[in-house]
Recover the amino acids of this structure.
């Protein structure tokens, strides 16, 4: 196939891919560049290099506490979304419950609704019932929007798994809990792992719910960055952003080790 | 314990969580959008639809979202096709190229564009050096800035949606077309493109929805004068504290999205699994 492509076309393809790559990566490269700048002002390319903005970020109370909140929320969300979503996916996959088909749609529905609409609803309900928002509000709402990812990745893995293993285990005398824990859960593992990474990544980077459900003392890292960008961005914002990009790269590397990025991309 | 009980037990926590923390909040929002001081009212809706300022915001939202969707599709289709047809090593790099921005926070990526597009930034500077722009030229605080930033944010969604469909196209179909005398471009147009339509539709639905409902990038790149609907909702919630009006705008946003998406999905032959 590829051999039959004419040379001009091939050159056009190369140019297209290079331009798209520049377009997609430019903002990230620029952020990293600015974070290494010595200057007081945001400038790219930086005129001289230094790590002073990283020092500033690590000694800044507001950034450190925001990072701590983001991390706590993301870990809680990852645990609950994987547990709740994984369990639901197993039950949905067995198709033994009434309305199994609509159950899948039900669990994927948070994907369809724009987050901003859900964010308003959550803020209004929480204020009406419980009063001021708290870390629990953020935890619950991030869990809601990440459950669909876990359900989807787990269902995808289960649909390719051997359905007779569970029956075989039953014939050989495994009880319900043993079957679930020793047969079904290991079958789900790649889906659960992929879902967990999605959940962590989405919760840690999410800005919309976090912006609506914020209050003094409940500021996640993306909200802190957004606030800085609205008023007085200095290179310290770039340093925090670079740390977040670094975390994303680390996540992608881990995913590639565990599952292979290609598989992850297709789910 | 029966099978039924076991499965119910597995599905119940998620069912309760989504019912209480997803469907109840949305219902609450719907109720609030029609509630006034003296019982139910449609005042918030008539206020929005009767005000040229808000109609202009709505029109801008629809227009920009359409432009962003079209550009994403025009770039995403060839990119996805190339990804599907190159060797495994290069494909891996291209997938990383698409996933890395996708998994990076929108706030961070928008910041990158703020630096690039600002008056002293790289893009206006290059344009000035090339003699394509005047000295005071700036892209920040324009609709163009919003489009550039949003296309970068949403292109990965489009590309992955199309890639999922294109990888499943049987290569032998293309070879057959070539053997029977089609040029490469003819094959692309008459064989690959029609088969990729479900992916393009799914990607467009996703990109349009995400684009119409986002406010972080438009707010930071477009500034407060160029408002889109989602930004106006955010302002009503956080600045003017007019929650019923915010709820009404959210309902209008969702109704608007459905109004455009449903006929489009129908037209293109139903919603595909993307």
């Amino acid at each position: 196939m590829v051999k039959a492509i004419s040379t001009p076309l091939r050159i056009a393809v190369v140019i297209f891919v290079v331009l798209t790559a520049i377009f997609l990566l430019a903002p990230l490269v620029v952020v990293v560049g600015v974070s290494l700048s010595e200057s007081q002002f945001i400038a790219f390319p930086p005129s001289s290099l230094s790590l002073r903005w990283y020092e500033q970020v690590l000694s800044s109370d507001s950034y450190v506490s925001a990072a701590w909140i983001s991390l706590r929320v993301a870990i809680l969300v990852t645990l609950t979304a994987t547990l709740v979503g994984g369990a639901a996916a197993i039950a949905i996959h067995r198709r033994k419950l009434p309305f199994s088909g609509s159950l899948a749609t039900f669990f994927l529905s948070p994907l369809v609704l724009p987050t901003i609409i859900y964010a308003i609803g959550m803020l209004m309900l929480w204020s009406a019932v419980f009063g001021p928002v708290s870390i629990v509000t953020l935890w619950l709402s991030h869990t809601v929007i990440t459950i669909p990812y876990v359900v989807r990745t787990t269902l995808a893995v289960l649909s390719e798994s051997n359905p007779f293993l569970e029956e075989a285990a039953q014939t050989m005398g495994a009880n319900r809990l043993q079957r679930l824990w020793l047969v079904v859960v290991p079958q789900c593992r790649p889906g659960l792992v992929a879902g967990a990474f999605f959940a962590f990544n989405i919760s840690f980077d999410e800005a919309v719910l976090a912006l609506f459900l914020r209050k003094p003392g409940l500021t996640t890292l993306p909200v802190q960055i957004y606030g800085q960008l609205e008023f007085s961005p200095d290179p310290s914002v770039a340093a925090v952003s670079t740390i977040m990009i670094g975390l994303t790269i680390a996540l992608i590397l881990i995913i590639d080790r565990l599952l292979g990025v290609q598989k992850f991309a297709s789910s | 314990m029966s099978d039924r009980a076991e499965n119910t037990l597995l599905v119940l926590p998620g069912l309760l969580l989504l019912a209480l923390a997803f469907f109840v909040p949305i219902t609450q929002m719907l109720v609030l959008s029609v509630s006034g001081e003296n019982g139910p009212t449609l005042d918030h809706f008539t206020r929005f639809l009767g005000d040229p300022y808000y109609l202009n915001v709505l029109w801008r939202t629809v227009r920009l979202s359409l432009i962003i969707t079209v550009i994403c599709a025009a770039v995403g289709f060839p990119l996805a096709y190339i990804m599907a047809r190159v060797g495994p090593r290069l494909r891996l790099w291209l997938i990383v190229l698409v996933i890395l921005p996708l998994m990076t926070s929108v706030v961070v990526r928008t910041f990158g564009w703020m630096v690039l597009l600002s008056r002293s930034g790289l893009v206006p500077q290059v344009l000035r050096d090339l003699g394509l722009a005047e000295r005071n030229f700036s892209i920040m605080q324009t609709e163009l800035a919003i489009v550039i930033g949003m296309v970068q944010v949403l292109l990965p969604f489009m590309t992955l949606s199309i890639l999922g469909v294109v990888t499943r196209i049987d290569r032998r179909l293309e070879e057959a077309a070539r053997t029977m005398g089609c040029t490469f471009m003819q094959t692309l147009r008459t064989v690959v493109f029609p088969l990729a339509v479900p992916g393009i539709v799914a990607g467009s639905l996703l990109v349009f929805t995400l684009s119409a409902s986002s406010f972080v990038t438009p707010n930071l790149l477009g500034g407060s004068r160029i408002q889109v609907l989602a930004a106006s909702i955010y302002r009503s919630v956080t600045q003017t504290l007019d929650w019923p009006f915010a709820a009404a705008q959210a309902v209008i946003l969702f109704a608007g999205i459905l109004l455009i998406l449903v006929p489009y999905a129908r037209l293109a032959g139903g919603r595909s699994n993307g």
About this structure: Residues 61-94 of chain A form the longest helix (34 residues). Chain A touches chain B through 93 residues (CB under 8 Å). The radius of gyration of chain A is 23 Å. Chain A has one domain: 48-266.
